[in-house]
Structure formats: C-alpha cells, structure tokens
C-alpha cells in the first residue's frame, strides 16, 4: 500500500498582510502606508493565487502591484513566494529572508516569509545537482538525480501523457505552464521538502505528495520491491488539477477521494470500482470499529497513526465518491467531477457543494449508514472480499532503511527454513532449497509473498516450469503488487515460449519497480524472440543503467 496525497497549507487569508488587504509596507519606511481599496483588492487577488499555488495566476497582479508599490514588503513577499512555487529556490530564499529578517516588515508577514524561505532552502538542497527532462510534449518537466533514476523519465513520459488526456475528460485541461515533477532518491528527502517528519512518512506509508506547485514522488529504488509509482504520479496529478480547479477550499477527504478514484484512468479511462483489498479493509474497519472520521483526515492523511489507518481512510473516501457519483448520475447522466469543483471554487462551502452536486441532502450521514452496513457504493449487495496477503491488510511498503527481520514477519520456525533454503539456492542446490521452502509453508508461511517467490525461483531453476507457474498464478492473485512475483511469472512464461506473456508481466512489474536488471533482461529476450532487436537493445541499455 502506498500513501500519496495532498496536504492542506495554512490559509494565507488568516496569516498574512498580503491576503487580507492590510497596508502595503514600504521597504525602508518606518511606518505603513494607508491602504486604499485598490491595494486591498490587489492583496486579496494575489493571496488567492498563492493559496492555489499558481504563479501564472499571480503574475499579472504582481505587475500591477509593482506599479503601485515597487518598494513594499508585500511585493517582496509575493515575488519570493512566486519564485518558490516556480522552482527558483535560491532566489526565493534570498528575497523571503530579507522580509523575514526586517524589523519593520509587517509582523504577520515575517513568520510566513520565514516559513517559505525555509521550504525554499530545503527544496534547493534536495534538488542540488538534479537534471531536468521535458516530457509529454512540454507539459511536464521531470527533475531527477542523474544516474539510475533517469530510467524513469521515458516511463513517466508515457504515463503522464496518458494521464493528462484521461483526466481532461473528468476534471479540466492542464495549465499552460509546464508542471514540475520531482523524483527524490529516498523517502527522507520527501520528508525534508514536505515539512513532514521521517517518522510520519514511514508510519503512514507516505510515498508521494502534491505540494508547492509540484508533484513529488520517491523513487521506487528506495523500496525493496518498489511500489505503484505509475498510479502514484497520476494520483498526484489529480491533486494538482483539483488545486488549480477548485482552490484551497476543497477538503482533504474529497481531494483524496478524487485522486484515488481517478489515479488509474491513465490505464483505463473508466473510474474504477472498489477493489478486493479495499473491501477487505472496510470489512476490517467494520468488524473492529476502526473507521476514520472524515474530519481526522485533515490536514493530511500522512498524520494518521499507521499504514493500516491510512489504508482504511483511502478505502472509505473511494467508497464515498463512487457512492456520490452514482447518485449524481441518477439525476444527471452527464454529471462530472469538474462541476463539483467549480461549485466549490464559486464560493459554496464544500459540504454544501457535495450535497448540491450529488442530490444527497443528508451526506455524510446517509453514506456512513450504508458503509457501516457493508453495502456496495452503487447500491448493490455486500460482497465478500477476497483474502489478501495479510487477511484484510494491504501489502505494506518496505523502505530500505527500515527492514524487518524475516523471523518477525514469518515466525521463527518458518524463517529458519526460508533462510536455509536461501543458502541452498545460493550454492545451486535448488531441489534441497525447494524442500526447505515447502517446510516453511507447512510452518505457517504459506501466504508470504517473499517465500512464494523463493519457492517459484527454485522450481524454475529445476525447470519445473508448469509447477512454478501454478505457484505464481496463485501467489499473484493474492499479491498483485509484489514486483518479484510478477517478474518470475514473466520468466516462467518466457521459459515456456510465451513471449507475449513474458512482455505483459514484465510491463506489469515495471510499473512497480523498473530497477531490477533481470526485468530488463527478460524484456530484451522476449523482444528479440518477437523480432524487435532495436527495442531489445534499448531494454538491455536500461538494464545496464539500473545495474550501475
């Protein structure tokens, strides 16, 4: 499971002179000028643009503000904030520090300038040495550390191009200015630039965010088995469009509901229904009374106490939005999410906008009642969720610097058999290794993804391809997000001469973890077998890059 999302920022209208139209303070002046009605209008307009994290929106207002108050601290603050949102981090830090350190700057402006200056400094440090790649016809700029992570660039080009086209049908077209996408090499860097703590990131499973007018993801290389980075970047793009379309008044739960519902439209243009893992999480919450109130999702799901709580919260909001959409389309078959966001942006409070758009006057109470009864969001009868890897809990992220001992995961007896099997496999004794893995299964590890991958690997080394495929088909049905299992299924297909099947499973594994050299070798072998030597050579080149 991954947690990706959006965090509500402090409301500028409450915190700064800029957003509420207080006097425009002149740099070098000992007292503030009197604020005219025009000054107040300018301040409010710029503040509204900054609250939407939109430099393009603020630009014409800044030109007008410079004409009226070229030396004001308000202008310096606004220009520094715009520089930060536009990715000019060093310039932003310098300008904002001057405001923050000035004893005659407005008191409400100084702490806000200091906060954003610190964020600019952190962003500059995080992206030092990064290179930039323009993709998707100039609509996105990928900021990435030179080296293995650049393997993601052509893949991001593919995903973002498709996501932009799909989301246009549900939300709105992309802004004219290119959208920045930052790929951070490790999750600690994400914590540094987001303002979250490393503990919050690891506890909640936060892996990506949309904040500061950019999409931010952690490289799959920082996790043992990767994660659904392709859906994740599409998820963050939804957050970005919501912010531009609906403004800062869209509540966190609705942000996350829209992002979760639309994150896979780059693959399938129809918004997905609940999957079995989500049904399992809701069944767990129902059984143990662990539902997460919508208000507790604010200001960010990253502050929830565990990965399990975050998984439940995401399942809840996904259920809620599908439930609301079914009722909205019962009234208007052409109902779209952008209509809901436009109502919020027009000044209607979010809850009232949801009620108006869906026609459900008693939301969320009516929805909560149906959720607790276990009804499907489209009004259907309850379904029994398929068992998952952890009996109701999605596969959790495994960060490289927070490894878990196999004994803690499997139990000591099963772990001993697995470790012995690993040693036997390493010295090319696959039959003995397979016997140890079967003993581990008997000791209670029959549903562990890693153990099943080891068993399948041993069977493949024994050339018992059909048996390996049986093990893998069953394992993948329960561990759909485990890249090693998908790779092994591709290798089993290739071993049986099924080149198209090998390519299919290699692609599925690549959307989780494109940093396994064996994955690119499998692609190259299958591409050569299907008469595509140029693509095979490109695949081998990618394998060389990730191996270094």
Task: Chart the SSEs and their pairings.
Elements: E1 3-6, H1 12-15, H2 17-20, H3 37-51, H4 55-68, H5 73-85, H6 89-101, H7 109-126, E2 131-135, E3 140-144, H8 152-168, E4 179-184, H9 187-194, H10 198-204, E5 206-211, E6 214-218, H11 229-246, H12 252-262, H13 276-288, H14 307-331, H15 337-345, H16 350-358, H17 365-373, H18 406-410, H19 412-426, H20 430-445, H21 449-461, H22 465-478, H23 483-495, H24 499-510, H25 517-529, H26 533-547
Parallel strand pairs: 1-5, 3-4, 4-6
Antiparallel strand pairs: 2-3, 5-6
Short description:
By secondary structure, the chain is mainly α. The chain has helices spanning 12-15, 17-20, 37-51, 55-68, 73-85, 89-101, 109-126, 152-168, 187-194, 198-204, 229-246, 252-262, 276-288, 307-331, 337-345, 350-358, 365-373, 406-410, 412-426, 430-445, 449-461, 465-478, 483-495, 499-510, 517-529, 533-547; strands at 3-6, 131-135, 140-144, 179-184, 206-211, 214-218.
Give an overview of the whole structure.
By secondary structure, the chain is mainly alpha-helical. It has four domains: 3-123, no CATH class; 131-373, Neutral Protease, domain 2, CATH 1.10.390.10; 404-469, no CATH class; 480-548, Tetratricopeptide repeat domain (Serine Threonine Protein Phosphatase 5, Tetratricopeptide repeat, Alpha Horseshoe), CATH 1.25.40. Helix content is 59%, strand content 6%. It contains 26 helices and six strands. The protein has helices at residues 12-15, 17-20, 37-51, 55-68, 73-85, 89-101, 109-126, 152-168, 187-194, 198-204, 229-246, 252-262, 276-288, 307-331, 337-345, 350-358, 365-373, 406-410, 412-426, 430-445, 449-461, 465-478, 483-495, 499-510, 517-529, 533-547, and strands at 3-6, 131-135, 140-144, 179-184, 206-211, 214-218. Strands 1-5-6-4-3-2 form a six-stranded mixed beta sheet. Strand 5 and strand 6 (214-218) form a beta hairpin. Helix 3 runs parallel beside helix 5 (73-85). The protein is globular, with a radius of gyration of 26 Å. It starts with a strand and ends with a helix.
């Amino acid at each position: 499971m991954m947690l990706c999302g959006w965090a509500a920022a402090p409301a500028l209208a409450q915190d700064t002179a800029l957003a509420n139209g207080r006097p425009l303070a002149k740099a070098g002046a000992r007292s503030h000028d009197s604020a005219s009605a025009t000054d107040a209008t300018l301040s409010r307009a710029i503040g509204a643009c900054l609250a939407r994290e939109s430099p393009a929106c603020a630009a014409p207002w800044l030109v007008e503000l410079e004409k009226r108050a070229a030396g004001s601290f308000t202008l310096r603050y606004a220009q520094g904030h715009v520089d930060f949102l536009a990715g000019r981090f060093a310039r932003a830090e310098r300008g904002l520090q001057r405001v923050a350190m000035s004893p005659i700057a407005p008191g409400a402006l100084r702490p806000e300038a200091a906060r954003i200056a610190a964020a600019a400094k952190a962003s500059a440090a995080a992206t030092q040495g990064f290179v930039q790649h323009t993709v998707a016809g100039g609509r996105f700029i990928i900021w990435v550390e030179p080296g293995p992570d650049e393997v993601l660039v052509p893949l991001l080009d593919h995903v973002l191009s498709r996501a932009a086209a799909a989301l246009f049908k549900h939300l709105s077209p992309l802004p004219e200015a290119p959208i920045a996408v930052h790929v951070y090499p490790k999750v600690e860097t994400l914590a540094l630039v987001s303002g979250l703590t490393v503990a919050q990131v690891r506890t909640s499973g936060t892996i990506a965010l949309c904040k500061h007018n950019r999409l931010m993801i952690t490289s799959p290389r920082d996790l043992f088995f990767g994660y659904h980075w392709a859906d994740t970047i599409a998820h963050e793009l939804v957050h970005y469009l919501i912010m531009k379309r609906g403004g800062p008044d869209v509540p966190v739960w609705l942000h996350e509901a829209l992002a979760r519902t639309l994150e896979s439209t780059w693959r399938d243009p129809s918004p997905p229904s609940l999957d079995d893992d989500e049904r399992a999480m809701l069944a767990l919450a129902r059984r143990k009374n662990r539902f997460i109130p919508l208000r507790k999702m604010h200001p960010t799901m990253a502050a929830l106490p565990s990965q399990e709580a975050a998984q439940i919260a995401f399942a809840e909001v996904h259920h809620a939005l599908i439930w609301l959409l079914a009722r909205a389309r019962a009234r208007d078959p052409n109902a779209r999410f952008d209509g809901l966001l436009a109502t919020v942006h027009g000044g209607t409070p979010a809850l009232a906008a949801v009620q108006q758009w869906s026609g459900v006057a008693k939301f969320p109470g009516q929805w909560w009642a149906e959720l607790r009864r276990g009804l499907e969001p489209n009004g259907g009868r309850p379904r029994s969720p398929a068992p998952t890897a952890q009996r109701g809990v999605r596969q959790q992220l495994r960060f490289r610097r927070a490894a878990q001992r196999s004994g803690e995961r499997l139990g000591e007896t099963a772990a001993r058999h697995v470790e012995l099997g690993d040693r036997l496999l390493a010295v090319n004794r696959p039959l003995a290794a397979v016997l140890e893995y079967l003993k581990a299964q008997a000791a209670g590890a029959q549903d562990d993804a890693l153990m099943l991958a080891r068993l399948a690997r041993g069977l493949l080394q024994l050339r018992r391809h059909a048996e390996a495929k049986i093990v893998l088909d069953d394992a993948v049905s329960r561990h759909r997000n485990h890249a090693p299992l998908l790779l092994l299924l591709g290798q089993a297909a290739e071993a049986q001469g099924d080149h198209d099947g090998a390519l299919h499973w290699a692609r599925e594994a690549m959307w989780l973890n494109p940093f396994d050299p064996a994955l690119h070798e499998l692609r190259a072998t299958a591409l050569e077998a299907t008469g595509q030597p140029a693509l095979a050579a490109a695949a081998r080149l990618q394998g060389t890059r990730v191996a270094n």
